[in-house]
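Researcher: Please translate sequence to structure tokens.
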Amino acid sequence: MMRIDQSGWITKFSAVVRYELLCNIRKKKFYGMLIVAFALTTLALAGSHIQSAITGDPVELNPDFVIDSNVGLGGFGFFLFAIVTVMNSISGEFESGTIVPLLAKPVSRTTVFLGKLFAAFLTLLVTYSFLMIYMTIGGFLIYGPQNNLHLVPLSLLGALFSTLIWISIVLLFGTLFRSSLIAALGALGIWLGTNIIGSIIGILAGQGWILTYIPGSGNSGSVGGNPLVGTPISTGTDNIGPNLINYILHPSWNVTYYKIDLIQSSQGMPVWEALNTELLSTVVLTSIAVALIYFIVFVTISWFVFRRAQITE
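Model: Translation complete:
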């Protein structure tokens, strides 16, 4: 009996996943986002050539281009993919009325919710894998042989982590308000607040540590000197992939955080004041823990609300 029940649940779960994947494939905005993603990665690949055309400087070989690329998207790209992938996943069912026949089938709401979430994960996995292959081939052709390509899967894993936290935020707004527009605008407000306002607070007020514990680009630090001369490091959930790779390659790195001394900087060049230093391993573990906690909490709330949502025909 147990095996039959498990087989039945897997069949229902697979049906929901197929249903959601087909919905994603049929979305025009998803194809539009794919075009934008390939445009962003192409721009990242061609960045040095564009700069060379403007300045006249030769394009230098960069053997670390691929592992530093963060799938060629970065935080804003992860945010956009989260919006496109799940903006209509829950709220769209309520808006179009398809939630009624969907839940009328012998499938639990938990199965529907988990199936939609897993379909979003599969969509991202396939899309990011293609982008990573494109970046790897392009990086080899444009910037020469690449180092540490065995670490490319870590970049892919980090990109998935970085996007899933935004997916959980979009799902939360969409489930609470049953509106795709609010789901998109609510997530956009959080993204703007954490990445723009938060960055200003971090650099000028020296309170960037707060950004480490909220979704986004995080606090800005550097290794080997102030941000103008050192290697930049960002602590946020958008940078899990690059930080993982840097930790594998440089496990002893220390990250130092700075703020601009406005009084002294007003007299000439920016003057950076060191605030504190921490191990890169601490940065990596903290960003992963923050991403997991937010993801679990937001997804759990969304699931709870979805299970108890009143359906009216």
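Researcher: Any highlights?
Model: The first strand starts at residue 220 and ends at 223.
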